[in-house]
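[audit] Reproducing an earlier prediction to check determinism. Same input, same settings, fresh worker. If the tokens differ from the archived copy the diff job will pick it up downstream; this log only records the rerun itself.
[audit] input (73 residues):
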Amino acid sequence: MTTPTTSTARSRAYRKRLAEKGATTICVAVDGDTALRLRNIAREHKQSMGDVLKMGALLAQRALAQPAPGAAE
């Protein structure tokens, strides 16, 4: 029989497992529409929210690295 754990202990263990995988926990504040969109993308594509945010960051970096259309060089 396993000993019941507190939510604090479970959270601590979860963060430790993430750290062992090289992951970092962040807190991001976004508007409600963006939060809903991110959740829907994760659910529809069977991905974690972290994976969706990782891909979003890569796409943003790519888009921002290109000059804006019509911008003078």
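[audit] rerun output stored. Observation attached for the diff report: The chain has three helices and no strands.
[audit] end
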